[in-house]
Write a structure and sequence with these properties.
single chain; about 260 residues; mainly beta; Porin; two-stranded antiparallel sheet; 2 helices; 15 strands; globular
């Protein structure tokens, strides 16, 4: 049976070096404060496409399935032609609870299909300009092009390498390196001692390729009672593919 990478990973500390202990604690203890909260809404400012000097509040609403996994993110804004309407996201899972399909309407509709080939290997097939019902089908009905990324995971279930092949034959490779505190190494970024917002759900970590234990120090203007970012400020050094993290963004959590 294939390992479910989205379940908490219990790591035996005996024989491991001390540098892994911080990461082990966060990943192996579902009772950590970040695990007690889930994101319900993010409020942020969106520019009026007809008036670059006008900004109004926009909202990202998060829905979850009965297993606590994200099922959708829907964006709302007051503008007639809002940019955020093109940012809606959907998630579907296989019978083992693993992310199977992730769709993103980020101007060009992306449809990600994940294939789990081994406990440390995942294939991410990305269909571009796609359409279809992700809640019913694994594959889109139509698409213009496809690219394939091969993901390599480490012993903690973190993505540490992404090798991508475009339809044109062009190839690229990204690596993700973590320090001894379990934080992604980003140039000129230092981390606080507070939990990273992505720690609230493994799907955010997986899609963002960011499993950092802590939040970058410069990003946070205010924290909630669980130490999670409540208000963000500039600069945003750890950009998110899936979360509407921007300067001034306010996060509403539902905490146990």
């Amino acid at each position: 049976m294939r390992k479910n990478i989205f379940l908490p990973i219990i790591v035996v500390l005996a024989g491991l070096s001390g540098c892994t202990k911080v990461w082990d604690y966060f990943i192996a203890h579902p009772g950590h404060p970040a695990r007690k909260c889930r994101i319900e809404k993010i409020t942020f400012n969106e520019m009026n496409p007809d008036n670059a000097e006008e900004f109004l509040e926009a909202y990202a609403y998060f829905a979850y399935n009965t297993n606590g996994h994200p099922s959708s993110i829907e964006y709302y804004t007051p503008f007639v032609y809002p940019l955020s309407d093109r940012l809606n996201k959907g998630f579907a899972y296989d019978e083992m609870g693993r992310l199977r399909v992730y769709t993103s309407d980020s101007f060009i509709t992306f449809w990600h299909l994940y294939t789990y080939t081994s406990p440390t290997k995942i294939t991410d097939s990305v269909f571009v300009y796609s359409s279809g019902d992700y809640t019913v089908n694994d594959h889109p009905d139509t698409y213009v092009s496809v690219r394939v990324s091969h993901l390599t995971l480490d012993m903690f279930g973190r993505i540490i390498k992404e090798e991508t092949i475009e339809e044109s034959g062009y190839t690229s490779e990204k690596t993700f390196v973590y320090n001894t505190d379990g934080n992604l190494i980003i140039p000129d970024v230092t981390y606080s001692g507070k939990p990273n917002i992505r720690q609230t759900n493994k799907i955010w970590q997986f899609i963002d390729r960011n499993y950092s234990v802590n939040q970058p120090r410069s990003e946070v203007a205010a924290l909630n009672a669980y130490g999670l970012p409540y208000i963000f400020r500039s600069p945003i050094s750890s950009q998110s593919e899936v979360l509407a993290i921007a300067p001034g963004a306010v996060v509403t959590y539902n905490c146990d």
